[in-house]
Amino acid sequence: MAGLTADQVASFQENGYLVLPDYLSPTEIESLLAETNTLLDNFSLESHPLTQFTTGDDDKADHVGDDYFLDSGDKVRFFFEPDAISSEPDPLTGRPALLKPKNLAVNKIGHSLHTLSPPFKAVSLNDRNAAVAKSLGFQDPRVLQSMVILKQPSIGGAVPSHRDSEFLYTNPPSAVGWWYALQDARPGNATLGMWKGSHKGKKGGHIQRRFVRKADGKGTEFVENTGPSLPKGMDEEKVEEPMDDELEILDITAGSLVLIHGNVLHKSEKNTSPRSRYAYTFHVIEGADGWEYDKRNWLQPSEGGFSRLSQ
Asked: Where are the transmembrane segments (predicted)?
């Protein structure tokens, strides 16, 4: 496997992201969509805690943090769109009621599809991705936090601007996101918005906050980052300048792979269109000596550690 070209690596390093069209074949896309629909059809609501996923990006918002979420790193679990759940409990059950059929109410399935679902494992833990990771400089790439993001028609919630290494912090930062479009993701359809070059220290790309488990183990919170804020090789960029307004709204066709630098600022808007926008994503971190996965991160490895991605 050849990995990325020199021009592609240079583009990723300059912009903080790289779009690779037609990375997945039509057969692979069909397989992943079929698996997603099977998972949605077959999970039970009977004992489900109806955990809602929200990134809650302000001081007043509650951050997701129940055990169903915190223990999902080696499982396949289902998280609901807040706008798909009533604010008042069902008078018969005493539980919140779904306002949509369950397959249209879920906004995320995660977080270990790459180990527990054969179709997702096949497109995740393979030599092609290992070659891409090697092109990006990884020595011992490890895969974690695999999930399908389901931007449901009309209600798919916005994801506010963030940097992925805030959530999956290594010392020093090393995360890169693999984001596959399973359906077209276009302007007006909750596609990705990327700030070009915002991963660089001189553009404000430092990891200044962390999303961690609370000290008492109950819930999550954002805290100030006191460790290294840039990946190795970027440490010389200490002068922070105002970031130019270089937001690019991507137009992505189904089957494309978007590589996302862990320090680049990006977001997605609420899906107000009548079309769903499904995407599969996982992250790669450096597992070699000299990098340490932080024990305060919300997602913690199970016995055996995170999945190795190697040729």
From this structure: none
**Structural contact between residues 169 and 210, judged by C-beta atoms closer than 8 angstroms:** yes
Range of the domain at 127: 6-300
Asked whether residue 216 is domain-assigned, the answer is: yes
The predicted structure's pLDDT at residue 279: 97
| 52 inside domain | yes
| Tens-digit pLDDT profile for residues 29-70 | 999 999 999 999 999 988 888 888 765 554 444 556 688 999
| The one-letter amino acid at 196 | K
Q: Which two three-digit tokens encode residue 131?
A: 């070659």
Say how many domains are in the chain: 1
In Å, how far from its chain's centre is CA 177? 7
In angstroms, rounded to a whole number, what is the distance separating the alpha carbons of residues 142 and 70? 19
**Which residues in the chain show pLDDT less than 70?**
1, 54-65, 235-242, 244, 311
Q: Is residue 200 part of a domain?
A: yes
Q: What is the CATH number of the domain that holds 114?
A: 2.60.120.620
Q: What is the pTM of this model?
A: 0.94
Q: How far apart are CA 243 and CA 192, in angstroms?
A: 19
Token output for 97: 């009621």
d(CA 54, CA 85): 13
Q: Among residues 77, 211, 219, which one has the least CA distance to residue 148?
A: 77
Within-domain flag for 28: yes
